[in-house]
Amino acid sequence: MKTFRHGTHPAHNKFTENVPLKEFKAPHKLYVSLSQHIGAPASPVVAVGDYVKAGTLLGKAASFVSANVHSPVSGTVTAIVSIPTALGSEAPHIEIENDFKDEKEFLPKLDNPSKEKVVERIKEAGIVGMGGATFPAHVKYSPNKPVDILLINAAECEPYITCDHRLMLEHPEEILRGVGFLMTALGVDRAVIGVEENKRDAAQALSEKCPQGISVEILKTKYPQGAEKQLIYALTKRKVPSGGLPMDAGVVVSNVHTAFAVARAMDGEPLYRRAMTVSGDGVEYAGNYWMPVGVTFQYIYDECRGSVAEEVTKKVINGGPMMGVAQPSLKPATVKGTSSLLFLSEKAINTAKATQCINCARCVAGCPMNLLPYRIEQLALAKDFADMGKLHVSSCIECGVCTFVCPAKRPLMQAIRLAKKTAKDRGIS
Prior knowledge:
- With 429 residues, this protein is α/β, with parallel strands linked by helices.
- The protein has 12 helices and 17 strands.
- A 6-stranded mixed β-sheet has the order 1-14-13-17-15-16. It has a 4-stranded antiparallel β-sheet with strand order 2-8-7-4, with no helix packed on it.
- 49% of the residues are buried.
């Protein structure tokens, strides 16, 4: 099986892998962020009092690296407010009062679109990277270097998360159709879908329907198998140069959910909802849901908690346990990149206190980028950033392997994040 060097094997905890996707009941009010992508926030094109439908444009991309934002429901715009995001900052949100009529306003369907039409529709539909990075997809599919292969990331290597797995089982034809459109956008004749071994049923569902030019490869179940550079190496044996992008290796990588969203966009549906996993022992109704953007975490918790006592939940994580962000409140709302929300009890989280580093080098052995995490942490804590360039701190992909494998429970990834930010601010490469 194909894989990369190093990495680790956290418990899968894929409790919802056999739970089919179902519609999540939209709330009375939704809060749609104008900044749910990498790049400039979208500029609002609606005003308080306007009536909107599901798919109505709420915010227009403000620059090349930006993305359109659409309404997830029909109803009335009641406010433009600033509320916290899952990443800790505040951003303007369009508040919509849902009328529960589910009226829709879609784009015209495209049949046999050209390369330019595919890219334009991706932009119109507001499609971003659905694996969590939320990079505006129309930018990725306008490469300025030659690309000869498209890779589809279907690894879903984070524990707990199962929404992509369900998507592959339930919608293989649409995913493959989306892959075809992405191949058209790039002008390539080959695409490879990488699926981890623990999802062989999904790999089979896709393989049985693959047209010529698209193949499915089984990847070893290992974390972080779905990290971009690791996936590229596993599937092609190509290496992305330090500081470079996948296109520097002749490759473009997209998440499997992005391909699905592209297929829907060609049918006219903008990106205003996504498949999302709600899991953890802090909720009774864990599952995989079609989740509109703009649903507050509090509402999701209230709908899914069931008979679990409120005091049971000790930690809420946006994303997976390895790379996700713990939430100080439930005020944030879902965005296009919200793949999962975890509600965890005290027994499900690691509460051990950090102790002195014992120089075991497990962090070095596990690091998929061949870095020295313990040394970076030492320099960061000493506020000695002069040699960070020599340690290639900017190459860290923040996968969390170092922190996970550390027997002393050192907060290595947090220290590395601090080091990366400081090095960037000081111009240290």
